[in-house]
Structures are given as structure tokens and as C-alpha cells.
């Protein structure tokens, strides 16, 4: 196993409430494994993981106050035909451990949530029950990531999302950080994660560049 990606240090520090300086600057790191890159915004500081040079990145004028997630900058990172994912809120919580409260789920390989997880993450586990399914995987920079999807989105109003997240946290060792990336427009999901003890630490977008 190689050394962890340096971006992981930023995520783990944020999970402990320690953040980069609020200086408006942008830190440039090497690209992520698997041909992926990303732009991550914390309060007043951004971190970009890319194969582009530091000089090239700074020449585009990003900053730590939001411009590192501007569409024109992200398109420059990805190249004319590269893939750019949606901008997500980055959230973190701690595992609760104990007896796992969700069984492993088989037969879900074609589920869009599972396909997406396997496209951008590694060591993907799928668990679930009649409420929905969750994926637990090694995601950006090797951090542990959780995502959920209810079978019936209308059931979210009955607390199924929150209960599914709570049970998913039992799959993570007690006290270990776990992360979730949630679209800010998905208010129902965002409320469920916040109600389950997740805390926002920043925002992020994944890219798979295609450059000449």
C-alpha cells in the first residue's frame, strides 16, 4: 500500500475541526488515483488536486472564496471534453461501531447509486433493507465515504433516511471519521444527514479530465 494522498490530511483535520488558514489562497496537490482530480473549498481556502502545474492553476485566477468552484475554472481543469461531477457539500460524522445494523445487499450491481460509487470509489460495500440501500467505500483521497438512497423517496418524510444513516454508521468502527458528499439542492437528503449528526466542512467537485 502506498502513502496516502496528501488531501486526506485536510479531510481528517476538518473532521477534527481543524481547517486551513482563511487566507483566500489555493493549495495545489497532485492528482487523485484512477485518473480523477478535484477542487475542494474550505472556508477561505481551497485545495485543488490536479496534474496541471501550480503555475497553470494559479494563472486561471481561482481563490479560496469560491472561485475555485467557478464553472470556467472547472472546465479548464477538466479540458474541453472532460467529465465534471456536480458540486457537493462535504459532510462528516463518526462511526458508532458495535453490532452492524444493516446486512450486506446482493443483486444491486445495476443500481445507479452503486454504479456511480464503483466508478469513482474503491472497495465498495453495499448494504440495505426494505428502506433503501447504502454504499460504503474508499472515496476521495482514500477517505471513507457513505451514500444512501431510499427505495421510495416519499418515505423520507417518515424518518427512513435518518434511520438508514444511523444504521449505516454502525458499519464504521466507533469514532472513525466517515464522509458524505451531498448536492446542496437535495434538501431532503441534506436535512437527513444533518439530523443524523453530520457536520458540513466545505464543498467539492470531482473531475475526470480529458486533455489534449
Entry summary:
The chain is an alpha+beta fold and 212 residues long. It has helices at 7-15, 54-59, 71-78, 112-120, 160-169, 187-195; strands at residues 26-29, 37-42, 45-49, 83-84, 88-94, 103-104, 122-128, 132-138, 144-150, 177-182, 199-208. Strand 2 and strand 3 form a beta hairpin.
Description:
The chain is α+β, with helices and mostly antiparallel strands. It has two domains: 7-86, no CATH class; 90-201, Aminopeptidase, CATH 3.40.630. The chain is built from six helices and eleven strands. The strands form two sheets. Strands 1, 2, 3, 4, 5, 10 and 11 form a seven-stranded mixed β-sheet that branches. A hairpin with a 5-residue loop joins strand 8 and strand 9. The longest helix has 10 residues, at 160-169. It is globular, with a radius of gyration of 17 Å. The relative contact order is 0.21. The mean pLDDT is 95. This is N-acetyltransferase domain-containing protein. It comes from Streptomyces gancidicus BKS 13-15.
Features:
212 residues, alpha+beta, Aminopeptidase, 2 domains
Count of DSSP E strands? 11
CA gyration radius, whole angstroms: 17 Å
Q: Assign the CATH topology of the largest domain.
A: Aminopeptidase
Order of helices and strands: HEEEHHEEEHEEEHEHE
Which homologous superfamily in CATH is the superfamily of the largest domain?
Gcn5-related N-acetyltransferase (GNAT)
Q: In the CATH hierarchy, what is the architecture of the largest domain at level 2? A: 3-Layer(aba) Sandwich
The shape, in one word, is globular
List unreliable stretches of 5+ residues: none
Beta-strand portion reads 25-35%
Mean pLDDT: 95
**Quaternary structure:** single chain
The profile of the biggest β sheet is:
7 strands, mixed
CATH class of the largest domain: Alpha Beta
Helical element count?
Answer: 6
Distance between the termini: 31 Å
Based on secondary structure, the structural category is alpha+beta
Number of domains: 2
Question: How helix-rich are the residues, as a percent range?
Answer: 10-25%
Amino acid at each position: 500500500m502506498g502513502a496516502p494522498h496528501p488531501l486526506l490530511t485536510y479531510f481528517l483535520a476538518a473532521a477534527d475541526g481543524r481547517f486551513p488558514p482563511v487566507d483566500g489562497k489555493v493549495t495545489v496537490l497532485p492528482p487523485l488515483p484512477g485518473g480523477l482530480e478535484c477542487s475542494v473549498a474550505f472556508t477561505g481556502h481551497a485545495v485543488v488536486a490536479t496534474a496541471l502545474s501550480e503555475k497553470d492553476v494559479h494563472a486561471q485566477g481561482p481563490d479560496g472564496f469560491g472561485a475555485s468552484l467557478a464553472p470556467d475554472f472547472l472546465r479548464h481543469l477538466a479540458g474541453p471534453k472532460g467529465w465534471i461531477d456536480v458540486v457537493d457539500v462535504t459532510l462528516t460524522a463518526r462511526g458508532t461501531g458495535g453490532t452492524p445494523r444493516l446486512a450486506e445487499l446482493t443483486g444491486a450491481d445495476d443500481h445507479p447509486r452503486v454504479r456511480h460509487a464503483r466508478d469513482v470509489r474503491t472497495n465498495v460495500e453495499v448494504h440495505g433493507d426494505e428502506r433503501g440501500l447504502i454504499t460504503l467505500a474508499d472515496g476521495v483521497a482514500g477517505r471513507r465515504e457513505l451514500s444512501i438512497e431510499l427505495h421510495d423517496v416519499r418515505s423520507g418524510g417518515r424518518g427512513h433516511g435518518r434511520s438508514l444513516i444511523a444504521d449505516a454508521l454502525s458499519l464504521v468502527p466507533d469514532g472513525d471519521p466517515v464522509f458524505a458528499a451531498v448536492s446542496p439542492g437535495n434538501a431532503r437528503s441534506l436535512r437527513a444527514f444533518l439530523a443524523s449528526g453530520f457536520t458540513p466542512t466545505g464543498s467539492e467537485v470531482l473531475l475526470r479530465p480529458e486533455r489534449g
